[in-house]
Amino acid sequence: MTKAAAAELKLILAILFAGAVVAQTLILPWTGADVVAHFPKVRNLYRPILVLSVLAVACVEAALVRLWRILTLAGQDRLRQRASHRWFTTLVLSLLAAAGLMAAILAVITEADQGTGGPIPPLALLLGIGGCTGAALIAMVKYRQLGRAAEHRRFP
């Protein structure tokens, strides 16, 4: 990967990270307060869902940071080194943690179904769970391919 391509991808990651920070600090609390204002009977769920949501976004942010580091290694053509294993492993774990937190949020809102959001929140959470899990699987497959390519390069 060229340094220019890595820099362009890092710009996209920076924009995604900034969007995640805005979602974490402004959008999630505002949306939750709006739901509580319209449906006071779910007031007791505001804090647990907000905490789980902020933690899920933090896991996605952690995955973005790991992906940034992987792109840095790729731009320096050092991705085949053993140190990259740690970054791929923590990337996968961050994505799976985000999927697990989204599953917990889905369990909480499904259990306390008060008719407050319709089908959109569960569907959005299912999409997030599937997206994070799929991204983790892709990262694992790419790491394996990278390992095989490095092994093939070492032993012609």
Task: Describe the fold and architecture.
With 156 residues, the chain is mainly alpha-helical. It has 4 helices and no strands. Helix 1 (3-38) packs antiparallel against helix 2. It starts with a helix and ends with a helix. The relative contact order is 0.11. The mean pLDDT is 88.
Low-confidence segments: none
Mean of pLDDT: 88
Structural class: mainly alpha
Task: Please report the number of helical segments.
Answer: 4
Largest sheet: none
Tell me the Rg in angstroms: 19 Å
Please write the string of helix (H) and strand (E) elements.
HHHH
Euclidean distance between termini CA atoms: 22 Å
The level of helicity is over 70%
| Gross geometry | elongated
Proportion of residues in β-strands: under 5%
This entry's quaternary arrangement is single chain
Number of strands: 0
Annotate the secondary structure layout.
Layout: H1 3-38, H2 46-75, H3 84-111, H4 120-154
Helix pairs in contact: 1-2, 2-3, 3-4
List key phrases describing it.
about 160 residues; mainly alpha; 4 helices; about 85% helix
Summarize it.
The protein has 156 residues and is an all-alpha fold.
